[in-house]
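task queued by scheduler; priority normal; single chain, no ligands, no partner chains; default sampling; output format set to structure tokens
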Amino acid sequence: MKEISMYKQLVYLPYITSYKQLILGAVELDFFSQLTEPATAAELSEKNGWDTGNTENMLKGLFSIGYIKRDGDRFYNTDDANKYLVPASPYYNGCSPAVLRR
């Protein structure tokens, strides 16, 4: 992940709990495995039986904090997300105690 300035860290501080819940929710729902290739909210919703609006909100949230990228209505993982948050990766870190305690 990219380093951020002290100022940005202080600005983001009130939102850390929200970021944690967003990321942990995405890990629990296995979002990152499903975004190794671009997909729309509708495609993910249909495949998993999820509500389309909630799926779109999750995708937009992950996009807003830089964990996934967007091309029109299609979303896909960043290189770091593919490396650390896809269980098939040898570098997977999505269920480590350090991630879960943050």
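post-processing summary
- The first strand starts at residue 39 and ends at 40.
- The radius of gyration is 14 Å.
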